[in-house]
Amino acid sequence: MRTIVSYLLLLSLSSVAHAQKVKIERIDIVGKGIYQVAVGKLTPNKRTPTGVITSVQNATKIENTTTVHARIGVEFGIQYVIVGVPKGAQVPIRIVNVYPKQGLRNPKTRETFRRVEIVRNKIIGDVVYTGYAFENAWETVPGVWKFELWHKNRKLAEQRFTVTRP
């Protein structure tokens, strides 16, 4: 009897889990502009212009804008919320940074980057930040910069910034 009860309990739990299938409706951009961030872990990544990905502990918006002056020390980006069910579930989001036509050329590696794609697990319902910080003079390229957010093969959000010389 105990085996049958356990089997029925397992069957009912798998039905509940199946009913909670992840579904993303959209991604809402809830903030854009210049930010001050508290950085966390640095992860080496040769597929990025600077060779590292920096995690963000906290992001505070300083100015609501889509025009950014290209100066070392400036951080700009977006805050967004993934809208879907179940709230609290982790989902893979592809973050795509598209740089101006001429790209970003790292003088050390001599590689030019026109776009970077990184996949990160994010939580449905949380406010999430992604952005870019100018750390080197060669990164301060004027033009249109885009942040795109994708889930699987669907682009769910895009934000453009115009980077100008100060």
- By helix and strand content, what is the structural category? mainly beta
DSSP summary, beta strand count: 11
Biggest sheet architecture: 5 strands, mixed
Number of discrete domains: 1
Output the radius of gyration.
20 Å
Helix proportion: 10-25%
Task: Report the uncertain regions.
Answer: 1-18
As a percent range, the share of strand residues is over 45%
CATH architectural label: Sandwich
Describe the structure in your own words.
- By secondary structure, the chain is mostly beta strands.
- 11% of the residues lie in helices and 60% in strands.
- It starts with a helix and ends with a strand.
Short description:
By secondary structure, this protein is mainly β. It has one helix and eleven strands, in the order αβββββββββββ.
Topology:
Blueprint: H1 2-19, E1 23-44, E2 52-64, E3 67-69, E4 75-85, E5 90-98, E6 104-106, E7 111-113, E8 115-123, E9 127-133, E10 143-151, E11 154-164
Parallel strand pairs: 3-11
Antiparallel strand pairs: 1-2, 1-4, 4-9, 5-8, 5-10, 6-7, 10-11
For this entry, give a set of tags.
11 strands, disordered N terminus, 1 helix, Immunoglobulin-like, 166 residues, mainly beta
